[in-house]
TrEMBL record:
Belongs to the cation diffusion facilitator (CDF) transporter (TC 2.A.4) family. It comes from Roseomonas indoligenes. This is Protein p34. PANTHER family: MITOCHONDRIAL METAL TRANSPORTER 1-RELATED. It holds the Pfam family ZT_dimer. The lineage of its organism: Bacteria, Pseudomonadati, Pseudomonadota, Alphaproteobacteria, Acetobacterales. The keyword Transmembrane applies.
Amino acid sequence: MTPTESTAWTSLGVGLLVLSLKGAAWWLTGSTALFADMLETVVNVAAASAALAAVRYSAMPADENHPYGHTKVEYFSAVLEGTLILVAASMILQEVYGAIFNPRVPDQPVVGIALSTVATVINGSWATILRRRGRRLGSPALVADSKYLMSDVVTSAGVIVGVGLVAATGLLWLDPLMAGVTAVMILVSGARLLRESVGGLMDEAVGPEDLAAIRGTVSAHAEGAIEAHDLRTRHAGRITFVEFHLVVPGAMPVSEAHDICDRIETALKERLGNAVITIHVEPEGKAKHSGVVVL
């Protein structure tokens, strides 16, 4: 089992534990806000299951039908998670609408708040660990899962405060209000997640910081070449694809040009981690006098 898959299994287990705690909190209190919080965690569990499936599939090696590998499937998992978030938000808003006209006093609020607090602490701790592991392993599915878990922590904290105020003040309208705020916050989270996931599916380039690092690495390790131009990058799950044209003197032997390419590839892989580098060598007559100038 790979570290990424092991992390995905752990995330699913944590999600089920948190769901059981929040489900118990809602069942004991009947609070609309705690129902919204529980429903958000249902999405967490569904998303964790999708992430696990995506991680397992993405680990499959390249084959004849998928020569670039299967890593992009993780973006589909993130898109699914974003869609589930939007569905959960609409269900919460529907529940809020009914609660506004028929408010009720939460039963056993102290016990419900205690259970929800324990669940939130567990969620927050795991979200922090998951984000670090997801970034280290280069897994969009795990990173997406961690971001949504952290937004869940924020909304859960608000729900806990709201239910506590309802119990302390008797202002029943606070309960559906906090549920509505929860729905709006997860709508924003879902929309942002969908935007990032679609960017991956559309072969969005690396960010400005990584692009600057790639250009600097090529320039510093291409001694003997003249320039590099037509640099293109894209992400596919945990793999970064980099390709460009490298201009060398026309009289340079193929073996020397190949050595330069090997040097650049090694340096880029050390900088980027899991990367696929494609370099097209051209004679000096193809120079565009633009792009990366070799130091």
